[in-house]
Fold this sequence. Notes:
This protein has helices at residues 17-30, 55-60, 86-103, 112-121, 136-139, 143-153, 174-183, 204-213, 229-234, 251-258, 268-273, 284-296, 298-311, 317-337, and strands at 2-6, 36-39, 47-50, 68-72, 106-109, 126-129, 161-165, 188-192, 218-222, 238-241, 262-265, 279-281. It has 353 residues and is of the alpha/beta class. It starts with a strand and ends in a 16-residue tail after the last helix.
Amino acid sequence: MKIHIVSETEFVMKATGVHTAFRDHVDLLKCKDDVDVVVNGEGTGDVFHGHTYGLYYFWKGIKYKGRRVFTAHVTPDSINGSLPLWRLFKPIITLGLRLVYSYADVCIAISPMVEKSIIETGATTKLVRIFNPVNTGLWKRSEEKRRKGREMLGLNEHEFVVLGAGQLIGRKGIEDFIEVSKHIPSARFIWAGGRPFGALSEGISRINDKMKEAGENFKYAGNFELEQMPYIYAAADLMLFPSYQENCPLTPIEAAACGMPVIFRNIEEYKVLYENPYISASDLGEFIRLTTRMISDGEFYNEGLNISAQLIIQFDKGAIRKKLMNLYWELSENSKLHAGYQGAPEEISWGLY
């Protein structure tokens, strides 16, 4: 069997979680020799699997009626605080995403909230829930990774480093991250990420001003290639993830896999997504208190490490790969049995939750 995987992020906007998920998907399938993988324009396959929602996705999927899979990384709520005038554009984007979802014969919801959002758009597609996989071996820290990461960031070996990562937009909580840094001058705060949407990014002037006003213990490190991120994570001691809206974010799970505590924002998405406990803050004061305690209380820090170790179990790549393969085989076999069938087959047992 041959799987054709498509993502426009291979050509633009590589510094996004969607591109990371796409590359992880390709690597996940290639880790065994039981399936062939075709990426973007390399040829055709038996099943089509898209990750992004541009014209390329529609074009490449034309020949795969009945065998189209789409992973929904983005929902209408994803634009909240991501684009200027997002309230004005949201109805149009909702309509566009409904078309994207409905074009697929099977839509993968990467979290319960994503599943709910897809249904609310009125999309006509089969739904399965499969989490984003995490290759824990790739992110596992080592002394060599830590040393190289600190060299890349210009840090000395004795500093306590708090990492934040994501786009420079309000939705990702960069402004709160800067405020926390002002209250804890004894630690170094590093933000990695950029603006893949360029001038269309929300809050450019406002956030630039905030970064200029930050203390000397804050550093904006810029964008890094995916291959560099294991070193950036390894350089840090703690991750703050103050994002206001997420679906199934890879960044905090990658940080947890690297072996550090993660402090999330207390939002509804995580309550239905994570099967194991996690540490969260409801407001700026709690972020400051929990970060300060992580720095000063060794027992609490070790508890954070244990929580991270349990959190990543849910995203085991082996279990997730098995679910994907089951889906592909069912689509492929059903296509052979129902040649010329219009629409998603009812006979498939979609018990993949």
